[in-house]
Amino acid sequence: MAPSTPPTHLVAPAPAPDSPGSAVFDLPTQRPAPPRLDLPSLRAPAPPHAPASNSASSAGPAYLIVSGGTGCNAICAAFARASYALPVSDDGGSSSEIIRVLGGPSIGDIRSRLVRLIPPAPPGTPLDALRTLLGYRLPAGADAAREEWRSIVEGRSGLWAGIPNDRKETIRGFLVYFESEVLRRAHKNFSFVNGSVGNFLLAAAQAFFRSLPSAIFLFSSITNSQATIVPVIVTNHTVTIAAELRNGTHLVGQCEISHPVARPPPAQDDEYTDPPSFSFDTISPTVQSQSQNVHFSTGSKDSYEALSAPINRLYYINAYGHEIHPVPNPEYLAGVNSNEVLVYSCGSLWTSIIPCLALRGVAEAIARSHSLRAKVLFLNAKNDRETTGYDAVDYIQAIARTLNARYQPASFGLGGAATTYPVSAFVTHLVHLRGGAVHVDVPRVTELGVRCVEVESDARGRDGVPLYDAECARRAMESILGREE
After folding, report:
1. Burial class (CB in 10 A: 0-12, 13-18, 19+), 338
2. Cα–Cα distances in angstroms (integers) from residue 110 to residues 115, 213, 280, 310, 445, in the given order
3. How would DSSP label each residue in 365-379?
4. Which residues of 62-78 are buried (b: 16+ CB within 10 A; e: fewer)?
5. Which residues pair with 316 in a beta bridge?
6. Tens of pLDDT along 136-181?
């Protein structure tokens, strides 16, 4: 009988102390000496004599900011500790083309906020180069857009200058994946016109991970962002909103509600006429118009055609045009119950703020939260297409009416009574700009249980109307929280 051989033990060689690795994705499996991280090379240099303490108490209260993609960007710096709740229903710009060809939730608003919250850095630094790349839009011409996209994917573009190689290859890998997904659907003729590189990265990550929160984590990790971005709905499917006007008209999609893009006139043909477009009762499918929404830019909001009637309510629909009641992201509801201040940001009321509120359980979470010290509405400086003719009371009542609506099937019997909360359960303070174009009737607002806080801003728009900036937003919050204490 042959002597038994001792068992063989396979031992992985210890990594060299200076071996390259990803500071983002490598997780320790043991407890050796602290690992080397290369992240400081991306950080902006700290100002001289910067305070050493970064404790939560010194950073001020914790905020939950309900906003859209661009409306809050001007005041983000006013909130040191903030979580941002954003909708996933934007169908304008390159988001519309991504949805049309690849599907999935809209990521345009989230990308806008992620790029805005990249830490500030001097020109020429890696962080500044990343901000330039991920905020870049391709040209408006189809051929030029396709050519520039090719140079970016192949790594030849000057936009890569200054970006560390590990970040470059991570981003480029996901852009290549995005290109492959587009090529698999070549029959849909994806248009790169006005395309956002950041949108393409985020959409590719969402498709690869099948998780929007994971895509947000990747984007934040690459850019050293410490922001907490919370999509109000977590889904891998397209989310569509619709508005019912007071005259019974229904508008489908954020662009149709807020800033419809002009369509080219139909071709004239004496021998043939296209049949009327298919519709679900009075609701037209939004995907038919998305190919034109790629031409939308935020500047197009400045001039608009008024709605045929004021908006009565906003709701979600599925692919068949039927009204649905989505379940909100649990992290969103947890944020309502853990942060100290809720802020309804300035921006599009019906297509940015209301989609975050017209969800199951949100009203109860806001009204019954034990952690919220204040619930603050930043009133827009002027009205837009969605709010033509509104005054401050109309803004407040639109929020209260939306939150008090039912977002679940009606139950039978006596146990289905709905709770109606007072306005002050949702809004406790109204911040408005001195000289703003939206009328504020202070006595009427006060009767609703809402305290008015007027602030002055040095920022002005092209029409001379005052605009919010971080400094005036900071003063407003100091005034509100100082009174609360």
Report:
1. middle
2. 9, 11, 30, 28, 32
3. HHHH-SS-SEEEEE-
4. bbbbbbbbbbbbbbbbb
5. 241, 324
6. 999 999 999 999 999 999 999 999 999 999 999 999 999 999 999 9
Could you tell me the sign of the dihedral formed by the alpha carbons of 446, 314, 239, 133, in that order? negative
Distances (CA, A) of 60 to 83, 228, 338, 378, 479: 13, 16, 14, 19, 13
Residues 87 and 351: their CA atoms lie apart, in Å, by: 9
In sequence order, the β-bridge partners of residue 65 are 84, 343
| Count of C-beta atoms within a 10 Å radius of residue 467 | 17
Query: Full-prediction pTM beyond 0.70?
Result: yes
Could you tell me which residues are beta bridge partners of residue 432? 454
Q: Which residue has the tokens 């049309």?
A: 100
- The CA-based diameter of the chain, rounded to the nearest angstrom, is 101
Q: DSSP readout, 360-429?
A: TTHHHHHHH-SS-SEEEEE--SS--GGGTT--HHHHHHHHHHHHHS--SPPPPSGGGPPP---GGGT--E
| Sequence-distant (≥ 6) Cβ neighbours of residue 401 within 8 angstroms | 313
Q: Is 407 in contact with 325 (CB distance < 8 Å)?
A: yes
For the chain, what's the residue count? 485
How far apart (Å, rounded) are the C-alpha atoms in residues 347 and 382? 10
